[in-house]
């Protein structure tokens, strides 16, 4: 595999050019302390055709030099918020002047879904204004931007005729779209595709959608946006690590059983992102693991696999609970929760067809197209 370097102009985005140049490419990663940023650096070291020359990891900066078989280095810099505040235009300009990136991968985000309901201004600053300022600086400098977004831009209303669906789907009884005058025709939720109209239900989802829209408004067809769902990994705070901690300390758990989505391993998402960058792809893409489940089914599978891998010494009782009951219990504790989509499974077909056509990065296994249970097993094995 050869790293292709093309000169990106503010009004024109390069797509998989065959022109070579022996000059460094610089990839700037925002949100260095996020689980995705750490996964991006970890996966870069595992990619078959790329050899990691050196990596320095300190509390304030992460940098890596990666060489392709052309000998031209690809330099990666992951910067924390203290080094790069994406809500500060002057800071962004100074960082761009220092590092001169050819690509920026935006992993910085306000991800506290419930807290965003009471802190919508800050969520907007980080998730909407920040991506816009990055896009504006990319436009000025000729850099490319890959922005990471969320399944929570959708409201759980995408439906299809069950007779036309090739996969088993979960019915959403609360969806108004399910009302059907024809009793012989059953409508079931279907995975969302990129052209489906977003309909966020929360302040967090709204801020993520605004971030997408502002990036596209600035960069147009040159923008690259990847929506993902239920992200977890071995770093940072996420559902898998939370469940493991609770299963070690609590005799029983209650987990929501009527919200359907798809868990996604951060390392698999990282591999997909690197493929998009190396192929210089633009557009809006969906990515999650294959399959779908509820949070309750996810928790049960975490426990089953963790017991098999000796990450847990004994099982705990896991009880399913409905979203209304869960919200009611939280309110009784004085906690207000954001509304979440009842169904937010993403269809990754567009991305898969795009990447399979030009498979730039290969690994021993195609982890990005594995079932969510398989991805979970890969991640848990790293903890065992």
Provide a compact summary of the structure.
The protein is α/β, with parallel strands linked by helices. It has ten helices and 16 strands.
What does this structure look like?
Helix content is 34%, strand content 18%. By secondary structure, the chain is of the alpha/beta class. Helix 5 crosses helix 7 and helix 7 (295-308) crosses helix 10 (372-383).
Which properties best describe this structure?
384 residues, alpha/beta, 8-stranded mixed β-sheet, 10 helices, 16 strands, disordered N terminus
Q: Judging from the principal axes of the Cα atoms, what is the shape?
A: globular
Please identify the structural class as seen in this structure: alpha/beta
In what range is the share of β-strand residues? Answer: 15-25%
Radius of gyration: 21 Å
User: What count of helical segments does DSSP give?
Assistant: 10
**Total beta strand runs:** 16
Percent in helix: 25-40%
Distance separating the two termini: 33 Å
In the predicted model, the low-confidence regions spanning at least 5 consecutive residues are 1-11, 16-24, 48-63, 67-71, 161-181
Q: Biggest β-sheet: count, sense, barrel?
A: 8 strands, mixed
* Mean pLDDT metric: 82
Order of helices and strands: EHEEEHEHEEEHEEHEEEHEEHEHHH
* Spatial order of strands in the largest sheet: 2-3-4-1-5-6-9-14
């Amino acid at each position: 595999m050869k790293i292709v370097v093309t000169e990106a102009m503010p009004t024109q985005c390069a797509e998989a050019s065959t022109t070579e140049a022996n000059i460094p490419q610089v990839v700037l990663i925002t949100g260095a302390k996020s689980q995705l940023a750490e996964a991006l650096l970890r996966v870069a070291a595992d990619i078959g055709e790329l050899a990691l020359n050196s990596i320095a990891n300190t509390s304030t900066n992460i940098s890596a030099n990666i060489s392709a078989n052309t000998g031209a280095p690809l330099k990666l810099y992951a910067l924390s918020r203290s080094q790069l505040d994406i809500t500060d235009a002057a800071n962004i300009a100074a960082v761009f002047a220092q590092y001169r990136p050819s690509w920026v991968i935006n992993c910085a985000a306000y991800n506290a879904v419930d807290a965003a309901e009471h802190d919508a201004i800050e969520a907007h600053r980080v998730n909407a204004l920040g991506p816009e300022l990055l896009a504006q600086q990319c436009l000025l400098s000729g850099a490319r931007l890959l922005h990471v977004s969320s399944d929570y831009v959708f409201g759980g209303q995408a439906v299809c005729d069950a007779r036309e669906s090739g996969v088993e789907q979960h019915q959403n009884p609360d969806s108004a779209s399910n009302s059907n005058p024809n009793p012989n025709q059953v409508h079931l939720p279907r995975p969302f595709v990129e052209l489906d109209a977003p309909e966020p239900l929360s302040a967090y989802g709204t801020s993520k959608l605004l971030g997408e829209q502002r990036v596209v408004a600035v960069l147009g067809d040159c923008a690259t946006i990847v929506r993902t769902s239920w992200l977890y990994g071995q770093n940072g705070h996420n559902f898998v690590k939370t469940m493991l901690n609770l299963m070690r300390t609590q005799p029983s758990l209650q987990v929501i059983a009527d919200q359907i989505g798809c868990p996604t391993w951060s390392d698999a998402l990282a591999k997909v992102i690197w493929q998009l960058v190396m192929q210089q792809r633009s557009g809006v893409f969906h990515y999650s693991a294959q399959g779908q489940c509820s949070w309750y089914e996810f928790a049960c599978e975490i426990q089953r696999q963790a017991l098999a891998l000796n990450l847990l010494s004994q099982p705990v009782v896991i009880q399913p609970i409905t979203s209304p009951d869960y919200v009611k219990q939280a309110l009784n504790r004085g906690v207000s929760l954001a509304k979440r989509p009842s169904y937010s499974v993403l269809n990754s077909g567009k991305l898969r067809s795009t990447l399979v056509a030009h498979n730039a990065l290969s690994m021993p296994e195609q982890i990005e197209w594995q079932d969510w249970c398989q991805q979970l097993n890969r991640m848990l094995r790293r903890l065992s």
